[in-house]
């Protein structure tokens, strides 16, 4: 390889297809085997290959996925059994009793529940702030703030937060970004100055609604080591087959994200023509769209191609009502969402079919 080639970083699509994957050295299979094992044979007590002594501690299929995720998110990745397990590990590593965390005022309900109902019992203190209001963010962040948790675009209102502007106002805090809705196709938070990137891999990374998983990507080695430690000590590890599925999903991420955005653009164009539809939100990328409509519940049960279901980011389109479904846990808090809000995850079907389906549901 010439020096010029060695120094050059491949484009995102190339890395998405190849990252973490080397052919199996024994049989040459282009896709390495799924190491579906709980343990590893040792030649003598305590003598084993690399760090492969027990599968909670290490697994080659998981390691391959982590190499790929680290490459795509410009850091070092540690994977978990769900997005919330990843969040829990990150909060556990970054914070201690009494730590102050600044959370977004619009956020995934499960993240709020984890902080409000679980971590606060261990002394975590938090404030909810609209992070698109940088003056409000500045007021909320003090010298004692340990962590600023960013979600962008936010779930479910799809507000876009300026990550670099948050980093510029962080004082002594660490910055973690939930990149589930944007994916590294659209933004790489660590390259914008964040310390951590978190994903529900259940969503766009996996991309096919057939796996639950999570990941934390750390910018610094010191944090990576601590996350690896908690991965083993806490034990919320993903299984080998789940790792394989997420890794396979990653290989088409760039193509899917383009198709999701095409579908969303077509749907938004149609929504703008419907008189009773208000507050249409789409960040201009990704497949997530939200809007308000007085007959929200009726619409959500009248679609044929959009399945009424929680979750998002799969190749098939989904529709849901956050207030009644994914965001029950924020009810009564300042992060509560209106009952007439509809959230769409636009899939990769033919956009014209999605538009027709939603249009008939809105006209019903
Ligand atoms: C933005 C966001 N972050 C985190 C999570 C939690 O991920 P998981 O369901 O994989 O635990 C979700 C789940 O919907 C989410 O939407």
Description:
- The protein has 2 domains: 248 residues, Aspartate Aminotransferase, domain 2 (3-Layer(aba) Sandwich), CATH 3.40.640.10; 110 residues, Aspartate Aminotransferase, domain 1 (Alpha-Beta Complex).
- Helices cover 35% and strands 15% of the residues.
- It has a 7-stranded mixed sheet, sandwiched between helices. The chain has a 5-stranded mixed sheet with strand order 8-9-12-11-10.
- Helix 4 crosses helix 9.
- It is globular and about 70 Å long.
- The model has no long low-confidence stretch (mean pLDDT 97).
- The site of pyridoxal-5'-phosphate (PLP) has 15 residues, from helix 4 and helix 5.
- Pyridoxal-5'-phosphate (PLP) binds next to helix 4 and helix 5.
| Strand fraction | 15-25%
Continuous helix count: 13
Judging from the principal axes of the Cα atoms, what is the shape? globular
Instruction: Please report the first level of CATH classification, the CATH class of the largest domain.
Output: Alpha Beta
Number of domains: 2
**Separation, N- and C-terminal Cα atoms:** 62 Å
CATH architecture designation of the largest domain: 3-Layer(aba) Sandwich
Order of adjacent strands in the largest pleated sheet: 1-7-6-5-4-2-3
Strand element count: 12
CATH topology term of the largest domain: Aspartate Aminotransferase, domain 2
Small molecules bound in the structure, each named once: pyridoxal-5'-phosphate
């Amino acid at each position: 390889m010439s020096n010029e080639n060695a120094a050059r970083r491949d484009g995102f699509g190339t890395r998405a297809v190849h990252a973490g994957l080397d052919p199996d050295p024994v049989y040459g299979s282009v896709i390495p085997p799924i190491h579906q094992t709980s343990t590893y044979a040792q030649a003598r007590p305590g003598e084993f290959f690399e760090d492969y002594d027990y599968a909670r501690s290490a697994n080659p299929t998981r390691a391959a996925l982590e190499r790929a995720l680290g490459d795509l998110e410009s850091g070092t990745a540690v994977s978990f059994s769900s997005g919330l397990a990843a969040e829990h590990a990150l909060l556990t590593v970054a914070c201690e009793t009494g730590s102050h965390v600044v959370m977004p005022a619009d956020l995934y309900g499960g993240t709020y529940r984890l902080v409000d109902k679980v971590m606060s019992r261990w002394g975590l203190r938090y404030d909810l702030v609209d992070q698109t209001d940088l003056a409000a963010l500045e007021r909320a962040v003090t010298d004692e703030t340990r962590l600023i948790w960013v979600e962008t675009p936010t779930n479910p209102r799809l507000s876009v937060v300026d990550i670099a502007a948050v980093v510029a106002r962080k004082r002594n805090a660490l910055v973690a970004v939930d990149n589930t809705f944007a994916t590294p196709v659209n933004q790489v938070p660590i390259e914008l100055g964040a310390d951590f990137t978190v994903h529900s891999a259940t969503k766009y990374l996996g991309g096919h609604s057939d796996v639950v998983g999570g990941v934390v990507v750390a910018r610094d080695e010191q944090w990576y080591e601590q996350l690896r430690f908690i991965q083993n000590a806490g034990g919320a590890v993903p299984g080998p087959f789940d790792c394989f599925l997420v890794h396979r999903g990653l290989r088409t991420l760039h193509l899917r994200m383009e198709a999701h955005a095409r579908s969303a653009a077509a749907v938004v164009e149609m929504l703008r023509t419907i008189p009773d539809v208000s507050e249409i939100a789409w960040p201009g990328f990704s497949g997530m769209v939200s809007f308000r409509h007085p007959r929200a519940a009726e619409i959500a049960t009248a679609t044929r191609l959009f399945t009424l279901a929680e979750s998002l980011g799969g190749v098939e389109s989904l529709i849901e009502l956050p207030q009644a479904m994914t965001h029950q846990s924020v009810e009564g808090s300042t992060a509560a969402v209106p009952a007439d809000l509809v959230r769409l995850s636009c899939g990769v079907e033919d956009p014209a079919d999605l538009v027709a389906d939603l249009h008939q549901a809105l006209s019903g």
